[in-house]
Structure formats: structure tokens, C-alpha cells
Design brief:
single chain; alpha/beta; Glucose Oxidase, domain 3; 7-stranded mixed beta sheet; 6-stranded antiparallel beta sheet; 25 strands; globular; GMC_OxRdtase_N; Glucose dehydrogenase [FAD, quinone]
Length: 603
Amino acid sequence: ERRNLGLLEGLVKFVQEGTRHFQEEPQDAATVLPEYDFIIVGAGSAGSVVANRLSRNPDWNVLLIEAGRPENYVMDIPIMATFFQFSDANWKYKMEPSSTVCLGMENRQCTCPRGKVVGGSSVVNFMIYTRGNKRDYNNWEKLGNSGWGYKDVLPYFLEIEEMTIPELTKDTRFHSTRGEVTISYAPFHTPLADAFVEGGRELGHRIVDYNGETQTGFSLLQTTKRNGTRWSASRAFLHPMRDRNNFHLKKRSQVTKILIDPSTKTAYGVEFVQNKKKYVVRAKKEVILSAGAVNSPQLLMLSGVGPKQHLTALNIPVIEDLSVGYNLMDHPGSLGLTFTVNQSVGLILNEMLNDGSSLVEYLNYHKGPFSVPAGCEGIAFIDTKNPSDVDGDPDLEILFFGASLLSEKSLYKTLGIREDIYKTVYEPVEDTHSWSGVPLTLKPKSRGRIMLKSANPFHKPLIYYDLFEDPQDLEMQLLGIKKIIDLSNTKAFQKYGSKVHNYPIPDCKHLEFGSDEYWRCVIRHLAVGIWHLSGTCKMGPISDQSSVVDERLRVYGINRLRVIDASIMPVVPAAHTNVPSMMLGAKGADMVIQDWKTGYLKN
Ligand SMILES: Cc1cc2nc3c(=O)[nH]c(=O)nc-3n(C[C@H](O)[C@H](O)[C@H](O)COP(=O)(O)OP(=O)(O)OC[C@H]3O[C@@H](n4cnc5c(N)ncnc54)[C@H](O)[C@@H]3O)c2cc1C
């Protein structure tokens, strides 16, 4: 009876919070002005920050256009993070079928979720907070992008961070408490998460604040969460500006074209469609593309900026011939490694729902297992070439989940795994307590490409990406799998009788279970990009034929048009790309502000 009362009270509280959340998101603008100073396309991780920073100047008016729906408070319950991939908050992209990778997925296609919602992919992601390694950004600078070294980006990471983990706030060189993006540990973690960190220590790794001075080591997950709920880009940057009257947000409005005068090669506005109605809006100063690594290149190409041959084949008049859509990167991973344990120490959604107390705890206090983002609890960064270097340059990440494909039936569908694989490998022991480790290749050498399917803006672009085209990317996975098996064999995990779930993947069962060849087969079958798509509008010097934007993020050859989002990353950092994209938003917006203040771009 007490629990029922707790549930009712919790539900009332949740509805109240949800209502407040709904009211705090900026409303859909009732009218659209014919002209704004700045038009930003995409209210995602980067675009939300850009809009926030530019509209701080009351003399500038700013329009932010978002194709997706409003964020919903249910999306902010951490354990639910994978559930919205079936909803209209996801663009539901898939990679083109391949004969070498994603072989265990429906139609040999890996899924490519992207947030289609106010807040963008920060609303569907796993809330993992990482910045990357200082060498990643120093490398950007070395590639010819001056002003992009670690010393230049760190101030922006600090500007946006609100660190709430007490022991980390003391390190003021690397952490700040004054920004908008709240960082916390999950208020709950499983005993298996402790085993992960302890197991890492047993294997000789350090426990590290991987967003501090050095990155290599093991840790519980730092997450973009406030008070046990998701802290999306929208909650961090858009909610606080809902009353700025120089700012308009259009939701469910898809930009279909950037308007560019072909004679002066100057961007002067955009065309967008809301409710089947077409609008044309002009930009007095600039159009800024923050539509993400799939849609920013798509929009550039639809607007005549892209590879000449490709656009000509689709009858799109070419305004500027640039390498748009190339250099697609992600952090390739694989899902084949599951461990069962002999105690009830993992996360099983069914159990949590049946028991009810976890739900009551979450609704009332935002604590307990529901506060764990998608079951993800720990992270390790390893420099496989210099494993004992305390200041290593990691090339391998291990992502730890206190759950696995055994823990929640819908997961295999979310990930696009073939039903026959689920039925033979996982279903026989589903609901067994388990954990999983996902190895991520942090310095991928393989590259993919985004192409247009047609000149129709409503046709999904094509995503070509053989994640393991370069064999080194696959070998790093193999190394990762071996490391994770070593972890399972530590005392910390053996306390729970951890053992590899050894039902072979049907297509690989002709190979000896556990042999290198077996694992290579599994990696190719249950491959996953971890959805850090980036690089498709590469930043680089003019001498680099493959670059699309310059170091001030201006599109080469086109005036008054920038790209500010994950697509400008010349090389993907050793990081989950949400907060790095927000950093790009803050730094990119500063460049816009500087350029217009100094009269660099004349009105
Ligand atoms: C399932 C998943 C899990 C992830 N987990 C993590 C994680 O735990 N930690 C982490 O750091 N990173 C994670 N990432 C990656 C990270 O969230 C993204 O790299 C980051 O959000 C990208 O930011 P962005 O600004 O480039 O693009 P987005 O945030 O994707 O924003 C682009 C926005 O533009 C809008 N848009 C696109 N086209 C148009 C158009 N034509 N007209 C109008 N609007 C348009 C989109 O709807 C979207 O809102 C994850 C991503 C996914 C998909």
C-alpha cells in the first residue's frame, strides 16, 4: 500500500515536472519575420549553443529552425535512452547495405539514429560526457587549423561546463561550475560498475578523471545530467532564453534549401517547409548550418555546394565544387561480447518494472537504477601502444554496461540485429543477469561518405560506411575484446562468477568459439557505429582539397555561410561527440560575434 502511495505521489510529481518542462521549452514562433540577422538550421547540440550566444546581443535577431518535434520529459529518464529511436524523435537513418560489415543486422544495415527533436541528438544520446584528448585538438591545429589547439578549445569546454561532482570541482584548471551543461555521476550504480573500475585497477590501469589533465584510465561515467535527469542541449541552452524577444524558434520545420545567389556566391536565406507550407526567410548577416553530420552536408549539396560530378548527375546546378559528404567518421564498435553473472547485480528492465520500487524511487527522487543512462555505467580509455603511460593517447575505449542484449528484449530491434540471431543466441537465456563491454576504435582509419539519393530534400541521404574497411580498425576491436575478457577474469568480476556468454553467432559457428577468427566474424556481424558521425564538412586549410570550411568555419567559396556542428571535425576526437559539438557551438558563435564586431564581414 505504501508503495502504491509512493507511485501515485511520484506520478503526480512527474506530471508536474513534465508540465514545467513543456512550458520552459521556447514556444514555436507564431509568426516568422521576412528577415533575421542570423538564421541557424538545426536546434541540436551545436545549434542550441550558437542560438544562445548570438541572441545575447539584443540588437541581433535570430531564427533557429528545427525539423523535429518538441522534447518530451519522458525522453529525459536516463534508463529510457534507447527507447525513442522508434519514435518520431529519430531521423531513422540506416547505413547502405554492405557485404563486409553489419552482416548480422536486418538487411545488412547498421542503424544510424539521429535526433529529430528540439535538442537534436543530445535528446536521444546516452548522456556520456567526454571531451577527448588534448592531442586530438592539437592535431586539428597541426592540420592547418590555427586557433583550434587544446589551449584554444579548453576555455570553451570550461565556459559551458557546470561540474557538480564534488571532488572534480576542485580541479579548476580543468573544471568549471559556471556553465550551462550540468555534469554528474549517476546517483546509482550497480556492483558490477564497481567491479569494472576495480578490475581495471587489477589490470594495472589508473582510476582517472578522464576529462581532467590526462585521459587514460578507468572511471565511472561522468554524464550530462542534472538531478538524475537528462540535461540536453535544449534544457541547457534554449530553455533559459525562452523570453528573449529577439529570438524565434520554429519547430517541425524542415529546411529544404539554403538560398545562395549564384552570381555573387552569397547565402541570403533559407527555404523551409512546415505543415506542407513553404516559407522563404532572408538572412541579413549569415546562414549557419548546424544540422549535424548527415543533414548539413545534405543541405549543402541540395543547395548546389558539393562534389560537382555527384550534383551534376542529379541535375543540381553547381555553385561551388567542394568535397562535401566525404570524410565520414564514427567510432566503430561491436556488440558481440556478453558476460553472464551468478548474482542479481545487473540491470534488467523487466525486473525493475515488476518490482516497482525502482520506478517509485525514480519518480519521487530521480534516484536508483532508472537514473542510469541506457544501462551504461563505466568507461575506460586505453593507449594500447603505451599502456603504462599515465598521460597516454588512447586508441581504444571500453564502454561498460551493467546490462546487455539479454537484459531488455527491445534492444536487439533498436540496434537492428536480425531476429534469428536474437532467438538463437540471446533469447534462450534472456533476463539472466549480465554485463557487456563495447570496444570502440578511437582513431578510426576507415572513412565513409554521405551522398544524396536525389534532389528531393525529403529523400533520406545515403550513408556509405564500411566501418572496418581499414583492417587496423577491426584489429583494434579484437584487441578490445581480449582486454574485456581479461577484465572478466579479474577477481573483481569473478566475485560474481562472470563468464563469457558462449552461444555462438549462427553465421560464425563454423569457427572455433573464442578464436581470433571467430571474434573477427562476430565483429563484422554485430558491428555498431556508436553514432559519433562527424567530418562530412571538414575544416581545413585551402590547400587541402578535401576541406569544406576554413578555420573560421566559413564554407569555402560562399559568402555568409558557415557550418557549426560535428561535421566540421577534421578528425573525430577520442570522445563521445555531444559536448565536443557544444564546444564547437560556443567557439563557432564567438567567431561569428568577433567577425561582425570587427566589421570583418561588411553588412
Ligand atoms: C543514439 C545516440 C547515442 C549517442 N550517445 C552519446 C553519448 O552518450 N555521449 C556523447 O557525447 N555523444 C553521444 N552521441 C553523439 C552526439 O549526441 C552527437 O554527436 C551530437 O549530438 C551531434 O551534435 P550536432 O549539433 O552535430 O547534431 P545534432 O545534435 O544531431 O543536431 C542536428 C539538428 O538539426 C536538425 N536538422 C537536421 N536537418 C534539418 C533540416 N533540414 N531542417 C531543420 N532542422 C534540421 C536535427 O533534427 C537536429 O535537431 C550519441 C548519438 C546518438 C544518435
